[in-house]
Amino acid sequence: MTKTVDEAEITFFQKLQSLIGSSPPKEVAKLPRTIHRICGVDAAYSSEGNRVAAAAAVFADNRLEETRVHSGRFTFPYVSGLFFLHEGPFVVAAVSKLKRMPQLVCLDAHGIAHPRSKGLATICGMVLRVPTIGIAKSVLIGQVSDYRNGLSMMMYNGRRLGYATSEPTRYWSPGFAVSRPELERVIRQSGATCLKALQEAHRIAKEEINLTT
Predict the structure, then answer these.
(1) Res. 27 pLDDT band, cuts 50 70 90
(2) What's the whole-number average pLDDT of the chain?
């Protein structure tokens, strides 16, 4: 699809994104110390046209419990830093179809490790009103430095953003209603399940987009 977004639109949405608050309202469920239901959500795109399929996969106590898919057509093109406008509506729709809201949603995207501290994982968490984290495959901002016990720290302008892991290499940052210490606990206790849920969501989304194109 030809990119038709005007520069004024991009600037407007960037400024709007910066204004959005990140403090969770009182009705948002807090992240429990032991997480039993983790959702991974990812999207796949058709090689031609503008079709998209988003899938949500919930693992309960490390076993696949439920999956949901939402397919549609995107109209807002990919713009770096404004990924939430491109993919957000579809991943939110997929998660919203679940019979029960998970305790944590993991997205193949950035959370606060973002130029305006509000990547796709943060914005989607705000809309869904559920704790979220971003687990990205590449760095958007910041540098990685040594930390402890198999984790590296993501830093930006002296601020601690999140963590990096290896095998596979992933960059983890809080999305919404999750603190950085809580994120570290999630990685150590449930990191493998988070990655498994994302992998399953990716597989389902790819399968769906191949069936509908």
Answers:
(1) low
(2) 91
CA atoms of 210 and 190, how far apart (whole Å): 31
pLDDT band for position 49 (cuts 50, 70, 90): confident
The dihedrals phi and psi of 75, each to the nearest 5 degrees, come to -115, -25
Tokens 């990191």 locate to 191
Phi first, then psi: give them for residue 107, nearest 5 degrees.
-120, 145
Contacts of 149 (CB under 8 A, 6+ apart): 188
Segments in the chain forming alpha helices (H): 7-19, 83-96, 120-128, 180-212
Domains of the chain: 34-139+172-212 (3.30.2170.10)
Give the C-alpha separation, 190 to 39, whole Å. 12
Q: How far is it, in rounded angstroms, from Cα 13 to Cα 120?
A: 13
CA 12 to centroid of chain Cα atoms: 23
Task: Give tens-digit pLDDT for 79-108.
Answer: 888 999 999 999 999 999 999 999 999 999
The answer to whether 57 and 207 have CB atoms below 8 angstroms apart is: no
Q: What is the chain's length? A: 213
> What does DSSP assign to residue 1?
-
Q: For residue 91, report the phi and psi dihedrals to the nearest 5 degrees.
A: -70, -35
By C-alpha distance, which of 14, 45, 30 is closest to 119? Answer: 14
